Amino acid sequence: MKKPPLIATRVLILVGMPILAVTLVPYYGFHVGFGIFEWSMGILFGIMTLHSISAGYHRLWSHKAYQAHASIRLFYAIWGACTIQNSILHWASDHRKHHKFVDDQNRDPYAASRGFWFSHMGWMIRDYKSGEVDFSNVKDLVRDPIVMWQHKYYIELVLTMNVGLPLLLGYLFGSALGVFLLAGVLRLVVIHHFTFFINSLAHIWGSQPYSNTNSSRDNLILALFTFGEGYHNYHHSFQGDYRNGIRWWHFDPTKWIIAVFAWIGLTNRLKRAPQLHIEKARLEMQYSLALRKAEHLQEADRWCQHLEERYAQFLVALEEWTTFKQEWYRSKKNELLATIEHAELQQRYIELKQNVKLQRHAWRLLTTQLAST
């Protein structure tokens, strides 16, 4: 079958820039050398652009996971353009289609089911039908004046941020070409591929603790290079959550920055998936995998029955505790609540929480025993 035509400007950027990065950067480094200022500018530009894609293009505009002050939106719009990954409007439209039709080879713009190369960057350099421009799914963003301003002046912003600003900073500090090569050329190539790995590797390599209905994976290593975007199985399961790494120890700088901005009033309405839904998704995945293994063991019926009983008990405990926890929080705000009634509620809360711990422990013992069989 004949391949769609190449898109010349994208080929120039996605193929030409890496060639410059692996030739001019080492040549300049060997013959002239890079100083601390040049490297610091490269790192600074990398942090600004990677965070703007993660917090701005992705979680703010594509998923509406939180709301942000105009100053934050303007910052993300400017530095997002510096990544040369298209305007917010284009990026968000493609990404929303990806989530709606994930892995569908005809409708997902960067379907991982079409292979690593296609999902990594092949989808961008040819005029594929799955990548046709259609802004019908981003009508909400059309009403955002900052989004539309960036869309209108996207080329000017790209040139200013990738060429003008690095050259100006370098000129002011005596190394225009050095700063341009590190903050403009090398940084752009590195950030491109870090971001592209979420479309490719994060659908191939990693674990699926929340769902196996699509190819998305959780991968800590990818999270380290993408400001937390590597927890991709969670993200596809709960795409409206402003967090990707939900545990406090999960490396997700984007969620920490969004939370800090919320404390000082620059972001608000941070969305979080209900804890019960998260726990149920994990439990259902574990139950499904355990049943699959049990079906191939001797006394399969006994194992399956035991798993079903433990699963049901754990699920009931989770639902009871979550429901009561909501009532408990409401009661703490009610100043008219009698002291003795408050004490009774507190005792019930402790009992239900302890029951969840016991059921979780029993479930883990059972699944561990099953795994070792």
Reconstruct the topology from this structure.
Elements: H1 8-31, H2 36-62, E1 67-68, H3 70-81, H4 88-100, H5 116-125, H6 139-142, H7 145-152, H8 154-172, H9 176-199, H10 220-225, H11 232-237, H12 253-263, E2 267-268, H13 275-294, H14 300-333, H15 339-371
Helix pairs in contact: 1-9, 2-3, 2-4, 2-9, 8-9, 13-14, 14-15
Which features characterize this protein?
2 strands; 15 helices; single chain; 373 residues; globular; mainly alpha; 2 domains; 67% helix; two-stranded antiparallel sheet
What report would you give on this structure?
- The structure is a single chain.
- The protein is an all-alpha fold and 373 residues long.
- The protein folds into 2 domains: 8-268, no CATH class; 275-371.
- 67% of the residues lie in helices and 1% in strands.
- The protein is built from 15 helices and 2 strands.
- It has helices at 8-31, 36-62, 70-81, 88-100, 116-125, 139-142, 145-152, 154-172, 176-199, 220-225, 232-237, 253-263, 275-294, 300-333, 339-371; strands spanning 67-68, 267-268.
- It has a two-stranded antiparallel ribbon.
- The protein starts with 7 loop residues before the first helix and ends with a helix.
The oligomerization state is: single chain
Report the helical percentage: 55-70%
Number of strands: 2
- List the strand order in the largest sheet: 1-2
Q: Which class of secondary structure composition applies to the elements?
A: mainly alpha
| Percent of sequence in beta strands | under 5%
How would you state the average pLDDT, rounded? 90
Order of helices and strands: HHEHHHHHHHHHHEHHH
